[in-house]
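Entry:
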Amino acid sequence: MSDSTISRRTFLKVSGAIGSVGAAPVFSARGQTSSEETEVTAKLARYIVDSRWSDVPDSARKEATRSVLNWVGCALGGSQEPSAVNALEALSEFSGPRVASILGRRERLDILHASLLNGITSHVLDFDDTHLDTIIHPAGPVAPALLALAEKQKVIGAEFLHAFILGVETECRIGKAVYPWHYDQGYHITGTAGVFGAAAASGKILGLDARQMTWAIGIAATQSAGLREMFGTMCKSFHPGRAAQNGLTAALLASKNFTSSEHSLEATRGFANTMSAEHDFTHVTKGLGETFEVERNTYKPFACGIVIHPIIDGCVQLRNEHGLEPSDITRVELRVNPLVLELTGKKTPSTGLEGKFSVFHSAAVAFVRGSAGQKEYTDDAVRDRTIVAVRDRVSATVDPAVREEEAYVSVTLEDGRTIDKHVEHAIGSLERPMTDTDLEAKFRGQAEGVLSGARTRRLIELCWGVSSIDDAGDIARDAVPA
């Protein structure tokens, strides 16, 4: 974490902006007019509309393909979770034409409800992708909206992947403009920024013109929602689901000339000034079409909050290097970034969902089981006596000098020895990325018990070849149990 980020986390500046709604020029959070902060929404909308598939480099196409594969696997893995079952039971009777699939299930819903459900299932395990610059889970809001739309109307694979890339670009750039202030104030940025990604991607498929796209962004802005208070409950996965549903709704409304403010991002009472104490719009407009945020996407080897990953990585390494058994451990001391305890400081989780936000439980399962996948974050796992016994021996100390992506682990053993591990970058990070083989193995693990082996292989092939398939809707249809 940089010194500037630490200082920004230390205090919040309140905007003194004054002006009429939707009007330019716009005042920044520091109270000064900036030419960079006018027409932000319009510039972004024009880029989305004008972007061509041929403008996207192979590196961005490749990473987007990896993201789609990872997302489909996560949706399959979460398809049987209580969150999905409860949501289906509550909402299924209100569905319109049942044209869209729920990945991993036989039920079908209308495209708006399907985008909600697939957004929930893909995020409920907290196993999905992460854009580390913003902590946004990019695919969660974008892919469900696109895939539902692709089942309603035929979308060729290249168009699907292009729209996906633009959706990720939109949500991550907007997220970068308000991070970390927006996140520190308690907003779940995957929900609040993700709605813009879903709107942009859906609008691209629907062929919106530039003005309609500005409306879609505005309709998305006024639906931006998600609170960090909900972490550890079913509502956390509801956020990307609702972002997908609301973003798709925004694009559909705009396609029929449903209007909104055309300055929804930068206006005095627009998204950034209302929902963040400070912002930097250059993150939205600078280098559009030259750099692609999807290339900075990462994938989780562990099914929990990303800030715990360095700790888990260090604990697993120590376990494996020294052949540790739970009975060998008398004390585990962690030195972590302040955000770790802020987000995952629950000492005694009572449910699997709460366990995903407990650094103490996560360190314990790493030592006891040598992994932190789906099975380590169940209700049974958080009550497992061996895991609980180790969890009770774990302590954590906050150190602002420790970066978000690193951790220090120190273990005191029964024989009196102390062993240590410093993790600079966890596996799954940009510096230590998961390979294609890793992603396939993760996919198969999540599809096990949901799809047959043959269907799983076929679906993996479809995902890897998404840019060349004739009908992207085939991905959704092949993700349904035979």
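The radius of gyration is 22 Å.
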